[in-house]
Amino acid sequence: MSEAVDHEVEAEESPDVDDPILEVDGLKKSFGGLVATDDVSIAVERGSITGLIGPNGAGKSTLFNLISGFYEPDAGQVLVGDSDVTGLPPHEIVQRGLVRTFQTPKKLEGMSVREAMLVGPQAQPGESLVPIWLSPSSVADAERANLDRAEELLQLFEIDHLATERATEVSGGQLKLIELARAIIAEPDILLLDEPVAGVNPTLARKLAGFIEELNESYGLTFFIVEHDINFIMRLSDRIVVLDRGRVLTTGSPQAVKSDSRVIDAYLGGGGP
Amino acid sequence: MIDLTRTERTVLGVLIGACILLAGLVGTGVLSASYLFYLLALGGMYVLLTVGLNVQWGYVGLINFSVAAFFGIGAYSVALVTSPRSPLELELHPIFGLLAAIVVTVVIALLIAIPTLRLREDYLAIATLGLAEVVRLIVLNEQWLTRGSAGVPGIPRVTEWMPLAWVPFDSANFRNFLLVVGLVALVFLIVRRIHRSPWGRVLRTIRADEDLAKALGKNTYRRKMEAFVIGSVIMALAGVFYAHLNLFLGPGDLDPINTFYVWIAVIVGGSGSDRGAIIGGVVIVAILEGTRGLVAVVPADVSVGPLRLLLVGALIVLVVRFRSQGILPPQRELIWPGTDRRASASTDGGEDRE
Ligand SMILES: Nc1ncnc2c1ncn2[C@@H]1O[C@H](COP(=O)(O)OP(=O)(O)O)[C@@H](O)[C@H]1O
Ligand SMILES: [Mg+2]
Question: For site-directed labelling of B137, which of A77, A199, B303, B342 has its Cα 20 to 30 A away?
Fold first, then answer.
């Protein structure tokens, strides 16, 4: 399968994206004197798995924060689908179909695993006070559907036995799975994962890669993934974007990027895998 | 009754024991029935304050140091609108006192929350500290409105309509007690319904990690605003009740130490738990009012006020040491009742999850 993908990418001469689901244009962000994002322009193809790599401090997480509305850019634009989301608060960007996860897993104090899952679904009628009183049956119907969907996803990720465990008591790796499952239940069009396998054992990492591929193929879900594990990201991605000191160093197929001397200098330090 | 956890059963047992003890005290004439009902009515008032703060701090993590101020806003709204001795000279029906209290509270809560809830959480805390002082100073100094330290007398009773003349121990205090029981029950049913819902779940997520809630598409600003306003209105309801209980209102009734007591009640009861809030309120009142009885016991040269604070302090130490989550911490998943197939299928729902 990976051969087929490689073939396709090689056949494509220009790195241009035909049908971008996410476009970043001239994005800039500095913190005091430090320019963390320096004129970054990136496009993510709809239905692709796009990797974002770069040395520590290159500005990958900052870029995710800018795209998802957690940071306000100093300049530039972010487009999700056809809509300009620059400067929108995070929850409105989610409504446009973009969901992100965090580099450091967020523990949900005082919640069970499935309760944490139930925070994922969008536009739940019971999240507003009026339907709670005026149309309790719509609240109940949505709740039942969401419970079923949460159960289904936990089963798919083989963690359904944890459903009623406290979310603070599962392992780091399981937490990563829960985060992915919870992002999926939000039904995004594009999912930004910030280091999904950091601190995850190799077996679970392979499993996670499998889930990502499956979700990408069967739902056409687009992934934009920051990952330090080079093997993981190279195997998974259709395209790779390399960031270095806040700038886009290069963009291309995993093969092209792997053999690019600038990338090797900046990131792989010459002794790469 | 089936879905009580072990801790809840213990707490219920202690409560029933306390009731029997109190009944015994009344029966043997140590305590007059009327005074007992007065104490219980005050207890109900504290429970309302605790339930209100629990919506803000326990559900969503908002820090409000204006508990006494919102209580005062509710109470003064009633006093100024209904009392014949109020400088406003409106003398309206108590229902308008209630409406005025709610409207004024909502407006002030919004004025505090709109600029601060977008900022870091400490800004709300600081703003509420300021509000507490502003309300206190207005009540004390704006005599044209509040009569200052003279206070507002002549607040009407609201319990005459109760058809209770046949009850042997019928008294104003008994009726006030029934009124507050009804009020607490109503508020409890309302907050429990909104708590065990997707709305409550979003609040719980915000409390744990607001960024995560935002990343999952939740309008956290709006939800925090709702919780702040609802909690403040419940505190104001406690003030409304107090005005009609005491029939007189002065600046002394807004003692800021009450904010501290209510915070202790929420923490002792178990932040985030509705039942815990009720227990916490009861425990605090038991200590505050129970220590009044100490006057008869301790030597005349020991003053009871500091002793009371000492007891509250000891309670905090005990809770932190042995039950840092409070007496009845939240134990239930926030899932809309009746939709969870697992819960209806499982039989061990009555056990503690510890
Ligand atoms: N909120 C912030 N305030 C100040 N500096 C920041 C902030 N966020 C990121 N930075 C800085 O921006 C640079 C890029 O960080 P980051 O995006 O986390 O890198 P990466 O995820 O690629 O490792 C780092 O030098 C980091 O210290
Ligand atoms: Mg990072």
Answer: B303
